[in-house]
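Thread: sanity check for a docking pose with S-adenosylmethionine

Original post by kr_44:
Hi all, I'm comparing my docking run against an independent structure prediction. Below are the sequence and the ligand SMILES. Could someone generate the full complex and paste the structure tokens? I mainly care about where the ligand ends up relative to the chain.
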Amino acid sequence: MSDLKTELAAALPRLHKAVFSQPTEGAEYAKATVRPLRLKDRALFQLEAIRDNKAFHFNLDESGLLALADETLIGRYRQVLLTDDGGARQFVLRRDGSYRKSGASAVPLPGGGPAAAHDREKRRLLAEGENIPALVDLGVFTEDLHIVKAKYDKYRQIDRFLRLIDDAFASVEPGPLTVLDFGCGKSYLTFILYYYFAVRRGFDVEMIGYDLKPDVVERCNAIAGKYGYEKLRFLVADVSKDRLYDKDFDLLVTLHACDTATDYALDFALRHHAKYIFSVPCCQHEINASIRRGGDLDLLLGHGILKERSSALLTDAIRAAVLEDMGYEVDLLEFIDFAHSPKNLMIRAVKKNPPRGKKIPLCRALAGRYGFTQTLLELCAAYEPDRG
Ligand SMILES: C[S@@+](CC[C@H](N)C(=O)[O-])C[C@H]1O[C@@H](n2cnc3c(N)ncnc32)[C@H](O)[C@@H]1O
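Reply from moderator J.T.:
Ran it for you. Here is the predicted complex with S-adenosylmethionine included:
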């Protein structure tokens, strides 16, 4: 057993990652990274190997990983970085094929020392320093895997989104899963979610991101191609009127899809029986533009800032009410603290019950009285449940 294999074997129970870089001529891949993986309650390891700018993934148990490392990795990469609960250790290949532990070893991890397994899982979701493909291409991480300062708020948003998704899916057995992202834009979230479901969790995930902008769609498709993400694609579409995915799907995500684009997304999810909805709305202008005085709530309409905020809250209250009437269990969560983004509310909905139809009529009465329009409230007339 080589020294490095012994070190690797000892690190596995508390492993964060092992990175094999700077390939020699005998190496099959440009780079290989090993991370722990939870799959159907089995503790496995995932080897991600990069060749010709494509990522290949192999899920292995401990002995399979050690055998593969011995045959194809150890001695073929000039540099190896092992990171576990105790910190990071660097190994450099000697001419005789053995490894020397480099001087700059034992870099303690932030909050280092043994951590509870649960905390480790949480920290791994989107940890700075972890080589998550696409985050560098998207400009969120620098080449040496630090967060780009200007992207810190975006990083916090997608990490938080991912944690909420992980809370909902941690106990879901991996299987086929279709995910649609409406108004995906530069698609930071879309890529991370694809990575989470397909690579980390082993779901057979098909994912589509829709956006109006052809240039961002083209770029996102190029990045998906680069990593061999065959079931992740991006399409140019106006979600308010274009023909979209024509089958039922499982999970809708929206992150700051502008104004009523969120309503069209929610409507699409309702029509296509999506079980899970995670939606962070933004710029809820519609009610603010149409609401007028009509009764007890007039006090909220006398000042521009109050009117704007009340209209935004009313918009999301109506969206939640429609989802509840359609049989979803709905939570409205603070998505990110106000200091980081004023667009900080998430609608999280999981389909649990049959439609029941109690709140939509109340919303309609309110809309009539105050003269406002709300797109989801109008769209849901096509499938709104009986009031009985
Ligand atoms: C604020 S950006 C958010 C992008 C991304 N979800 C994120 O959080 O980084 C809103 C995106 O929604 C897209 N969008 C707005 N209305 C749309 C519509 N009707 N159909 C498709 N995309 C739309 C815009 O082009 C834009 O890229």
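Residues 183-186, 188-189, 210-213, 237-240, 255-258, 261 surround S-adenosylmethionine (CB under 6 Å). Hope that helps with the comparison, let us know if your pose agrees.
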